[in-house]
Amino acid sequence: MVSYHPDLDRIPVEDVLAALGNPVRLFIVRELASSAQPRTCGSLPVSVTKATATHHWRVLRESGITRERRDGRTKVVELRRAELDERFPGLLGPILDATAPRE
Amino acid sequence: MVSYHPDLDRIPVEDVLAALGNPVRLFIVRELASSAQPRTCGSLPVSVTKATATHHWRVLRESGITRERRDGRTKVVELRRAELDERFPGLLGPILDATAPRE
DNA sequence: ACGAGAGTACGACATACTTCATACATTCTA
DNA sequence: TAGAATGTATGAAGTATGTCGTACTCTCGT
Questions:
Q1: What is the pTM of this model?
Q2: B14 touches chain A (CB under 8 A)
Q3: Could you read off the pLDDT of B48-79 as tens digits, one per residue?
Q4: Which PROSITE patterns does the entry link to (chains A, B) (predicted)?
């Protein structure tokens, strides 16, 4: 169901920024960050079809941001928070904390 | 020569991340951040043609990251560092400090 | 006024991204 | 074992991005 999880040491920061520079993916990451437990893909209220969501999950996984594993019928996704914080200290927090634009 | 500098309050963080999620632009931003003085466009050792560089400068400007002004024949570019730090506290530092991938 | 320097505008092109519909695979449950 | 639930693969369409060459504008020096 899922496989490739890159070594974060080999990920350039540009790739992480590009991955997070998409509203759907940033939303997903914020959902993941705000829940104590890992989430199943289906439990994330995204605004796109399943097929599109699969695409975005792959981008997040391949850029080292998330980890996926199968659990029965569902796929569980979680942030690689500790690894990211070690690879890119201080990066994730400010992104998650960023406020919405005015208006 | 130049004009549009958006109000940072209206910029979503995704736009900043997407702008920085490109190697050429991240390189430019790092150059700007590492020099005490503002730089002229021509003084930045980018690996693309002038026309392409113009494109990247526009992206940086329109995402609120840089400010440009004309100075004689040259264009001076500078980071909107203080404004960015106020709008997205703690965001820029970790990006600038991120290390290159292993290998 | 002329030419050189610095950057822009425009058009073209290839590639990548985002999105979807449809068909498929896998696993649970009745 | 059949059907439902969950997600993937594939292919297509439309849009956006990154890149360049060329022609242009604006400014400075001579």
A1: 0.93
A2: yes
A3: 999 999 999 999 999 999 999 999 999 999 99
A4: HTH_ARSR_2 (PS50987)
List Cα–Cα distances, A57 to A45, A68, A86, A88, B48, in angstroms: 13, 9, 22, 21, 32
Neighbours of B50 (CB within 10 A): 10
Q: Is the dihedral of CA B16, B21, B25, B27 positive or negative?
A: positive
Domains along chain B? 8-96 (1.10.10.10)
- Strand C protein footprint, C-beta under 7 A: A 1, 18, 22, 24, 48-52, 55-56, 59, 70, 72-73; B 1-2, 40-42, 50-51, 53-54, 57-58, 68, 73-75
Burial class (CB in 10 A: 0-12, 13-18, 19+), A99: exposed
Asked if residue A1 has pLDDT above 90, the reply is: no
| Sequence-distant (≥ 6) Cβ neighbours of residue A79 within 8 angstroms | A29, A32, A33, A65, A66, A67
Q: CA–CA separation, B31 vs B46, rounded Å?
A: 10
The DSSP line for A43-81 is GS--SS-HHHHHHHHHHHHHTTSEEEEEETTEEEEEE-H
Residue appearing with tokens 């980018």? B46
